[in-house]
Amino acid sequence: MGGSKNGHKNFAHVRSCDVAVIISWRKPQQPFPGGWGMAREHQWMAERYEELVSGGLNWDPPTLESASEPECTVDGKQMIMLSANNYLNLTTHPKVVAAMIEATQKYGAGSGSVRAISGTMDIHLQAEEAVAKFKGVEACLIYSAGYTVNVGLIPTLVQGKQDVIISDELNHGSIIDGVRLTKAQREVYPHNDMEGLERALKNHKDADRKLIITDGVFSMDGDICPLDEITELAEAHDAMIMVDDCHGEGVMGSRGAGIVDHFSLQGRVDFEAGSFSKALGVQGGILAGSAQMRLHALNHSRSWLLSGSQPPGVAAAQKAAVEVLMDEPQHHARLWENTHKFRTEMESLGFDLGVSTTPIIPVMCGESRVAKDLVVALRDQGIVAGAIVFPMVARDAARVRNQLSAGLTDAQLDTILRGYESAGRKLGLI
User: Fold this and answer.
1) pTM value?
2) Which tens digit of pLDDT belongs to each residue from 379-413?
3) What domains are there in the chain, each with its CATH number?
């Protein structure tokens, strides 16, 4: 997922993944009727938090008081949602919900252990088989989250200084964290710059293992990696490829099978990381590839070995979501219809949408203040979108990120467009 250039070159940059910067601060309320208790006070924590507040960089998440749908209740108000990862609107799909309920009634609320000991149920394996079939790979291993795929797998793919990891400069923070856990050499190439990638590969031609890592869809900009060119370079330089396709799962490809399917590269990309938590509407991380890869990760990936097994209801919902995507292609088609309509109309109004080619469509604002003001103006009109400001992006590259959904109706899209036109003219963006 895409992000800031600030500090990434030494893998020191920390980003907030897929959540917009919150623009308001509320005094923390007493959390429980019993009071604050006798917890120790740590002044350094308070000081650090106040620094965030003073810079407008603290998190103050809004409260969703209904199901995550295109129109939902946020902080007591009916809103049209443009800030959810629920691209296919599957969180409330009847088949997915029914599968979760039925599995919970059959198996119970939990699995009783980690997957490696006694927490692997038949429903977990069925979900993995469904994913592998859908993506056209030999095998799949499901993790607790996309984050745990990256931090758990990356350290197992390299050994030490004799190896090198070559990473796109706008890669997701979870990739950066995974790289930090290794002792391998590290090199960052300019965003989607294939000449830069080739130079990095040549710089490390003598490395024992060379691992290229890239996002599939960059979540801050909505553009995609040139995976076809990356694959050619990897094969020419005997390098492995890992692609984080969390925002491409269910979105990219002719049927939503992801970025590898989009480029018809099945069998040529070593490791696909994905997510159930976005377009597939459930929860969990996906690792797809060869049967050998699955066995490797199962035996060496600590985040999989040491995390509690997902509840059987979640596994059943994962399987059902994949089956819905295979059986009901209209959701994927509608997502792209809405995406094309929104992009076309916004461009005709004169908005700068950056380099997006996916359902992640930023409205470029420049100054952080303008992005924050735009979010407030949209909320006044019943529209929720996320302000992305420094340090997640460069100081002059603030934007409001819109994430389209298959569930949005034409009437809701028209409301959104009218809201943007009004707010954009007021703020001088168009």
Assistant:
1) 0.89
2) 999 999 999 988 888 889 999 999 999 999 999 99
3) 1-8+57-84+329-430 (3.90.1150.10), 94-327 (3.40.640.10)
